[in-house]
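Case study 2.
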Amino acid sequence: MRIRVAAAAVSSAVVLSALALPVAAQAATERTGAETKLSSFTSKSVQPRNSLGNTKFSHAVINGGKDIVLGTTGTKSVTVTYTATDQNGIALTEAFLWQGTDSSTTEGITGGLGTDDDPDCTETATQGTYTCKAVFNIHPATDMKDNGVAGTWKLFLGAWDLYANASYNDDVATASIKKASTLTANATPEPVKKGKTITVTGKLARANWSTGKFAGYVSQPVKLQFRKKGSNTYTTLKTIKTNSTGALKTTTKATTDGYYRYTFTGTPTTAPATAPGDFVDVR
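Prediction:
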């Protein structure tokens, strides 16, 4: 049974009175409706409380278990799957991604993202158990205005059963939302005589959500790697740091034909990046 349409049977007045709603204002991100709806699930009594009600949520997977990597433009669609269980049946579920320490207060929410549509839930062969899917369409240009919100986000799930009883859990699962990064590499001269010096330049940049542009990533460790022609394996030659503009420059000795590249392992707030290998012919 698809349950999105079943929500029409639940009186909004009954639902609101059951939830004892607090009011949330704008948090760090721009889609203010997400924060308002998110905080409306939490009870005013005995705060902070990270779960309430009889509906249980489990088996949640965010973005296939992978980091959510955002650039500065376009739309990133993120799918979340989960199981909701309630012996009183389920009329409707809601899903949010949020960041902070307390989902019931404005001060406790530093970022919030909601779905455009209610999640789709289907009752399984086991009565009272539903498999659900929610889709978050994230627009970095408007949703991620604060660079500080990169990092760990939590999955908030709420539900109403068929008798309009509300439940929620504000920490069902976690995911990392990271800034996209780019990396280049250019090895010169080419061709080069064996034993002579090769200079490898490049630049590491990452998304800046405040400006809507990519900017150099300063003082980050980046590995210079080499792959011999005919091989599939890169070997790390050295590790250097980006300068004050994110630029890279180092030298190495030419030994044989092959590819040079830079690789960045990433940070808790920034995705990894690897430059395409740049071929050098050694004569």
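The helical segments are 12-19, 32-39, 140-143.
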